[in-house]
Amino acid sequence: MHTRIETIDPACPDLRVISEAGRILREGGLVAFPTETVYGLGGDALNPEASDKIYGAKGRPSDNPLIVHIADREALGGIVREIPPKALALADAFWPGPLTMIFGKNGRVPLNTTGGLDTVAVRMPSHPAARELIRRSTGYIAAPSANVSGRPSPTKAIHVIEDLRGRVEMILDGGPVGIGLESTIVDFSERIPTVLRPGYISVEMLEEVIGTARVDRGLMAEDSSARPKAPGMKYRHYAPRAELVIVEGEESRVVEAVNGWIQEKESRNMHCGVIATDETAPLYRVGAVVSMGPRGDEEELARHLFDVLRRFDSMDVACIYSESFYTPRMGQAIMNRLLKAAGHRVVQV
Ligand code: TXA
Ligand code: MG
Hints:
Blueprint: E1 4-7, H1 15-26, E2 31-33, E3 40-44, H2 48-58, E4 67-69, H3 73-77, H4 85-94, E5 99-104, E6 119-123, H5 128-135, E7 141-142, H6 157-164, E8 170-173, E9 184-187, E10 194-197, H7 203-210, E11 214-215, E12 243-248, H8 251-267, E13 272-276, E14 288-291, H9 298-313, E15 319-322, H10 331-341, E16 346-348
Parallel strand pairs: 1-8, 2-8, 4-6, 5-9, 10-11, 12-15, 12-16, 13-14, 13-15
Antiparallel strand pairs: 2-3, 3-7, 4-7, 5-6, 9-10
Magnesium ion binds next to loops.
């Protein structure tokens, strides 16, 4: 398949291009587009064949449901059975934005879109191009992150091109995204609202609006007996090709340990990478050192994570050592992705 790649101004996208993309979606085709979190791989959420195509293009297991993207609040009522009052309050506070909520679905949403579940995940993105595209589609775009299943989520159009060129009709290039981690997912099926995937919107931010919320037990855990409620969270994810190990401990000890391990590996002709911060990067004497940004700027760390993980794939490294990033607000979201990418390999020094 030939993939058209169109560059757009993210703040003020060319409406002729967006209309053309909307037409592709209405006709059952696939369009990758920028959102404020990560790039999405869009298809018509109400068309079962379009959803099947999304699973095919990503190589995604068909029991892993898709998020339906809407552009206005009225659209929500068109696909769900009811809207819990706490969901309404969160929508008032955080929509449009990086928040996804789970609702009971109605008959308009095909089971192909929800991976066979009778619930549907819904998000109203704030990105101007995404909103315009939704309006020019059927009003409902199913969109997982626009990566091949298992790879880091795309935060730049080049990541999407690497993964999906030849598998989708169109890729809209709106430049690098703003947040860089996928949306926070909240479920209301139990008495206390539960975060199924941490993101830019933290539990504390949710609690300010709806009172007590909790984080799904299976989320940060390694063992699968605490089975996560979002089917997608059980799969290995975000993994770079090289083996990734997270090194935790006091900063100077981490630097010393990593320098020692890499030196030893280099002596056996194995090249290694390091995921560091602006402050520590100069302290690593060996290896391919990549900085996530200044340690004090957690939004910048979050924005760079997936790009950093992908960058190592184009380098000839056999292993990667990463510092940990338990920052105050987004630390849980960052570490959730990093732990998955590392297959939960953590070394304390
Ligand atoms: O920021 C985002 O959410 C991005 C952009 C494109 O909007 N999308 C995204 O989609 O991250 P995806 O497919 O990569 O991740 C969707 C997650 C999966 O872990 C999936 O299992 C969960 O949402 N999910 C979807 N529908 C669900 C449902 N009905 N119940 C529980 N979890 C659900
Ligand atoms: Mg994904």
